[in-house]
Structure formats: C-alpha cells, structure tokens
Amino acid sequence: MSKVKNCISSYMKRDGNRNVVLLIAFMAVQILFFSQVTEYFLGISNFVNLMRQTAELGMVTIPLAMLILTGNIDLSVGAVMGVCAISLARMLRAGMNIGLSILITLCIGALMGCINGFFVAKLHLAGIVATIGTQVMLRGACFILTGGRPVSGLPKEFLDVAKWNLFGIPFTFILMIAAFVIAIFIMQRTSFGIKLHAIGYNAKASKFSGIQSDKLKFWLYVLSGTVAAIAATFMLTRFASAESAFGTGYDTDVLTSVLIGGMSIAGGSGNLLGALLGVLTIGTLRNGMNHLEISALYQQMVLGALIVISAAKWRKYKA
Amino acid sequence: MSAEPILRTSKITKGFFGVQVLKGIDFEVCPGEIMGLVGENGAGKSTLMKIITGLYTNDGGEIIFKGAPVFFSDPGKARDIGISIIHQEFNLFSNLSVAENIFLDRKEFRNRLGQVNWKKMNEEARKVLSELGASFDVTMPVRMLSVREQQLVEIAKAVSTNAQVLIMDEPSAALPDNEVQNMFDVVRMLKQKGVAIIYISHRMGEIEQICDRVTVLRDGINVDVLDMKTRKIDDVIAQMVGREIKDYYPHTSREPGDEILKVEEMSGDGLKNISFTVNRKEVVGLYGLAGAGSTEVAEMIMGLRLMPSGTVLMNGEPVKKNAIEASMAAGIGYVPPDRRQEGIVVNMPIADNIIMANLPKYIKKGLLDFKKIAASTAEHIKELALKCNGADQTVLSLSGGNQQKVVLSKWLDRNPSMLILNEPTRGVDVGAKSEIYRLIDELANSGLAILLISSEVPEVLGISDRVLVMCRGRITGEYKNENLGQDVLLKAASGTTGGDGNE
Predict the structure, then answer these.
(1) Is A4 inside a domain boundary?
(2) Would you state the pLDDT for residue B41?
C-alpha cells in the first residue's frame, strides 16, 4: 500500500501530473455519482452521445494546449468554427461538391490561423489581444454570412458522416483520441516538446539559444485555425444547420479543459494528458448535469468554480 | 569606533528540512563601523541576515540588540527598533513617486480620514535626500531614476526609519562601476553618523576598500573576523575557501593562432565604428563600464540585436546579419550576462537546458535520442564538475556557479570555435569563479577564440591575452596584456585618454 502511495506521490511531483491524478480520481467519483442519481447515465447510448460531444472539444484542445504551453492563447477558436461552419453550410446548400467544400473550409480555417499568427509572430501583439480582436471580427462576419437566419437543408451524404462509427464508437471520437496519442508522443519524444516548454518558461533564454519561437507560434496558430475548421465540419454534420452563434462559448470550454488539466496560463508548465482528461471531465460533467436537468446557466457556474479550484495552489505559503 | 557592539548574535543555529545551514554563528557590529560579511554562496550569509531582520526565526541562539536579547515576530518589528536591510534587488514601486516610496506605510503623513499631507511628505523626503547629498525631484516616479538614484531612495527609506543598523546586500551589483565610489561616499557618511553598517559583497576589491572589519562565514560557521587595518584581502579569500587559492587567475602564456572573428565598422544603437578582431587560441578582454556598449557589441555579433551598419566576418566570410541561427552556424556561442533571464530556463531539467541550443544533434529519425542525451549531459556534468543530483534536477535549485556551468555546457555542446562570455562570473562564488577562469584558460589553449566581456578590471587583467576598452560606444583602447596597469584601463574606460586603439 505504501509502495503505491510512494509511486503516486513521486508521479504527481512531475510537471503537470498532479492534475492528472486528481482528475482521474474526480472522474471516478463523478461517474459513480451520476450513475447512482440518474437513470440513463450509464446506458450505452448515452456514452456514445458523450463521445460525440467530447470529440470536437478534444480536437480543438490539442493546438490550444500547445499554444498555452508557449505562453500564448487563442480565444478566436469559437468564432473561427462559426465562420467555417456557416461557410461550409452555404457552399453545400449551393450544391457544391462535398469534398471540395470541406477542403475550402479547411483553407478558411488555416487562413484565420495565419491572420492570428501574423498578429502575434510578426506584429508581436499579445496573443490574448490579437485573438479577442479576431474573435469579435469573425463573430461579426458570422452574422453577415447567415443574414440572421440559420443555414440548413444540407445534403444527406454530408450529414451521414455523423453516423460513421467503429464497433459503435463514433469515428470522431476515435479520431480525437488518435490525435491526442500522436500529439502526446510528439511532445515527449521529439524536440518539439522541449521547444514549447522552453519558450513558455523563458522566451528570452529560448531566443538566446537559437530557438525560433516566432516561426513556431505562427504555425501553432495556423494549426489551431485548421483544427477548428475540422471540428466545425464534424459539428455541422451533427447539428445539420449553422446559425450565427455557432461555436459561441467554445473557446471558454476549451480553455476550461486545458486549465483543469493542470496547464499553467503563464506557459511552460503542464502536459497534454492532463488536457485530455480535462476534456473528458468537462464532457462528462456537462452530460451528467444535463441528466440531472440542471440548466446550462448553472452548469456554467459549476465549470467556472472548477477552474478556480483546480488552478489554486492548495499549499500554505511559508514565511 | 566604540567598543560596545550595537548588534550581536550568539550561537545562532538554523536548519531547513534537516539540513543545518547555520551552525552557531557569533556575529557583531558596532555603531559607526562598516562590517563586511563575506562567504561563498551557501555559506549562510543571507540566512543569517534574514534571521537578523526577522524574516526567519532562529532555531537556537539569540540576537542581542543594545545589550538586550530581542525576538522578532515579523520583519516590521526589526525595522521598528532600527534594523533595516537594502536588498540586492530593490523593493521599489516604479510608478510611485520618490517621496511615496520613502514613506510608503507611515502613519504620520495621514490625517484621521486617511488623507495624505503631500506637502509635508515631499518636504520630509527632500530633507532626507539632501542629508544623503542627493537633490532630485521627489515627486518624480521612481522608474525615471537611474539605478544609483533608486539605490539612494532605498537608503533614504532605511535612514528615514532611523535605522541604527543598516544591512546592504550586494549594493554594488546593480551599479555601474563609476557610481560605486559615490555609493561609498554615502556609506561613509552614514558611518560618520554612527550607523552600524553590514556590507555583504562578492567583490573583494570593495570589501578591502570600505570595510573596517570583515566577518568570514564558511559552511554555516563564522571562521574569522579580520581587522582590515592590519590584514590583507588575500587573507579574507583564503579564509573564505578554507585554502589558499594559488593561481586565482590561471593564465598560461600562449601564441595566438590566426584570425577568426573580424568586426568591421559596426555602428548604430549607440555604437560608433566598432572594429576589432579576435584570433584563435586567444582570450580578448572587452572592458567597459555599464553603458559603454559592450553588451550591444556582443548581441550584434550574435544577431540578437539589429545591426544598423557594419559587417561581422567569421573565418573571412561575412555572417548573415540579425540572425542568431547564422551566427550559431558560423560557430559562435554566447553566454549572456543575465543568467536567469537569458541564459537558463530555470524550471527545466539540466539535461534539457544543455541540449536546447543543439537539438538537431540529438534527433535520430525524427525522434529524440535519449541515450545520447544522457551520455552527453553526463559528460558535461563531469567535465565541468557541475554539482547536482543528476541531469533530471531542475536548474532552479542549483547555485549560481553551477547554473553558469549549465549555460557554458549548453554552448560547449555545440563545439564552437568562438565563445563570447558576457560577465561570466557575475553572482558566482569565489570557488566557482576560479573554476570558470581555469576553464576559460583551458578552452583558449585548446584553440578556442574567446571574447570576455567584463566590468571587473582584475578579471580582465587576470585572464586576457589582449584587452579592448570601450567607452560610450567607442573602442577607446587596445592593449597587449603585459604589465598592464588597472589605471590605464580605468582611464580609457572613462574616456580620459584615447589609448592606442582604433580611434
């Protein structure tokens, strides 16, 4: 018993792992709780549903977590998703080839990422300022693109993508987990991870060691935009219609997952496994609260509280 | 000097997590005396001072102030009875005015409603500063002041509380060399007024110049108190390290090789027409007071700072401007002056810090080669005698000297043909300093070209083969280091002579 305890405590001491352990414990507790107090939580159909919901959130979390590791942030993902989904929906309704429309959508996402990357890497704006700027602009674009009415009536072949699955597990969820596995592997086994941590902890020393942080940041923003476009595509197959508010609040959800996962907003500290667990925790919590018929407004308050609790250092400061 | 000490500690002990840091320290300081406190990093200087100022509580022993034992429950108490400390890093609010900083939390300038009497406060501030021989605008925000003036504000803060014991922790570290004498004048004036001063410094020249007595700490005990009227600074150094340092500056004579670096007419950003060369197998000292522009030269060579005009040539080939990767590829390494900000990533392990400037070397088929990393870092740790618990330890917990060795390893890992060392021994204790000097000498002997930028004259004279002196963005002197006197460098650095340099 004490051996296990030692093992866990030494694991927790390593960077970002404290929250990994805490989140696993929290997950176990909440699954137990929800399965006791609600009727349908443990059902297979609910789990499939849960996987669908968390898949897109998880995808977007990967690039954002990397950006946060470097001490940057992307608050425009929700708005980028909105623009991408609405554009895609309009192209599809106009009868354009599905593959081509999706390709164009991805390009739009990448372009939005380029704009953010340009602001941060070239003009040296703070990431939070630049991406709030693009967020507001792009949300405006969403209203213009929809004209205030939801775009629906999409081709059936496109909507069928939502039903793709492997042994009942939604395709998007498998894709998301695979992406996370690859990302975690890259972070741990290539020099990319060292660079991200180094930039986040000390941008100046990284520069003085010849690490080209501007280039790296630029491509991370491009990645973030592209992945947002991918997530928007999958989300559109589920929703079957795109309205002006598509993706609103998504940036906060992603941010919440990353922060609950133990990543430091100041950069440098944290790991991707924590971010994945953060995504699963948030997804499960939301789902469970839906079963409890707690309104979305109260859910928001619970999630907010969770960020603060998980980020606080529960240790007394020594004099 | 009155014989009765105003502050005395007796058998002070203190431990952290089972490690005994102070093992019974007896220390004293008399009114009107400047007591030097020296010791290598980790000897217990700062712990002792934190106990005296009430930041830590001692495990055993007692503090006797004016003949009576005292106990501080918090740092405010120590200040109230007259013990003040000026930290190495100033505790000033840069956006508040000078007067506000001096009288930050004093009640006497507030009426019952909490309204501040600005007129009275500014007048008092002016008075305190004029006592210190300073006369700058007290309504100015502190960020507009020079470092020396900021230090005066710190001193004024202490003096205004009627400090009877004033602790100065590395007061010259932040000051440019030419300001140190002015600071000494203020310190001597306080001494005249009967203030007891505890002067902590790594710079032995200053200790020799200003201190009446010197207490030497080593491994948590006070090994000796030396009266500087009769003893020499060499005795102090010998006591600090517990052995006599022979060849503190090892300097083997060598014949320089062919030219490797050539800087031609580098100008802009305060620099004016800088041209010089560095040869293989040569240590070139670049001496200059703060603001002379030596760091700018280094950063332009390295491509870290925009070079408006001029050329840098390595082996006769021009190096691409403003691109650190080009300078690194040309074989130059740069150890920056501000270790914590520019040199190391404190939260990362030693291994990651060592390999971060040379990542491609450790990639095999796109993946990191952890075996190679372990082997190579272990070799560096052994070669530089880096004291650590292993390559996984974070750099944060290393001493200054060992952190510097990490930075050196980072660049040595690239097998450079030229190293620029900017203040390589800043904040490094005496033992590690001499190790670094020996390393520089060995590297030069093995064929490396070394440009040593320093604002410490003894260091420059101690290990360079050739010395360049800079003043206000120009090179004002170039000398072969043979029987070169300190005065020659100081003169050239303050712009009083032209020297026989490139002017």
Answers:
(1) no
(2) 63
What is the pTM assigned to this prediction?
A: 0.76
A15 within some domain? no
Inter-chain CB proximity B348 and A198 less than 8 Å:
yes
- Pairs of CB atoms within 8 A across A/B: 68
* B319 DSSP assignment: P
Q: Let me know if residue A319 belongs to a domain.
A: no
User: How many domains is chain A built from?
Assistant: 1
Kindly identify which residue of chain A lies nearest to residue B392, measuring between CA atoms: A14
Rounded Cα distance between B151 and B138, Å, is 14
Indicate the CATH number of B257-331+416-503 among 3.40.50.10260, 3.40.50.300, 1.10.620.20, 3.90.79.10: 3.40.50.300
Give the CATH number for residue A147. Answer: 1.10.3470
Q: Which of A194, A212, A319 sits opposite B356 (nearest CB)?
A: A194
Q: Is B55 on the interface with A (CB under 8 A)?
A: yes
Spell out the per-residue pLDDT of chain A, length 319, in tens. 677 777 666 666 666 677 788 888 888 998 899 888 888 888 888 888 889 889 999 999 999 999 999 999 999 999 999 999 999 999 999 988 999 999 999 999 999 999 999 999 999 999 899 999 999 999 999 999 988 888 888 888 889 888 888 888 899 999 999 999 999 999 988 999 999 999 999 999 999 999 998 999 999 999 999 999 999 999 999 998 888 889 888 888 898 889 888 888 888 888 899 999 999 998 898 888 888 888 888 888 888 888 887 777 655 443 3
User: Chain A within 8 Å of B355 (Cβ-Cβ)?
Assistant: yes
Contacts for B383-392 with beta carbons within 8 Å, 24 or more apart? B383/B409, B384/B408, B384/B409, B384/B435, B384/B439, B385/B435, B386/B350, B388/B350, B390/B350, B391/B349, B391/B350, B391/B351, B391/B354, B392/B349, B392/B350, B392/B351
Decide if B368 touches A, using CB distance below 8 A.
Answer: yes
pLDDT score at A179: 95
Cβ-contact B105, B187 below 8 angstroms: no
**Cβ–Cβ < 8 Å for B300, B376:** no
Tell me the CA distances in angstroms from A49 to A61, B210, B227, one per residue in order: 19, 77, 82
In a domain, A30, yes or no: yes
Could you give the strand order of the β-sheet that contains B259-268, starting from the edge strand earlier in sequence? Answer: B271-279, B259-268, B309-314, B317-318
Domain that holds residue A270: 22-311
* Residue ranges of chain B whose pLDDT lies below 50: 1, 245, 498-503
* Identity at A58, one-letter amino acid code: G
pLDDT of residue A59: 94
Question: Could you tell me if A207 lies within 8 Å of chain B, comparing CB atoms?
Answer: yes
Q: How far is CA B373 from the centre of its chain?
A: 32
- Locate CATH 3.40.50.300 in chain B: 7-241, 257-331+416-503
Per-residue model confidence (pLDDT) at position A316: 47
Residues 6+ apart with CB under 8 A from B85: B49, B53, B158, B166, B167, B168, B169
- Could you tell me the fold of the domain covering B7-241? Rossmann fold (3.40.50)
Res A10: pLDDT: 66
Q: How confident is the model at residue B502, as a pLDDT?
A: 40
- Residues 255-314, chain A, touching B (beta carbon < 8 A): 268-269
CA distances from A178 to A184, A229, A276, B43, B263 (A): 10, 18, 11, 53, 53
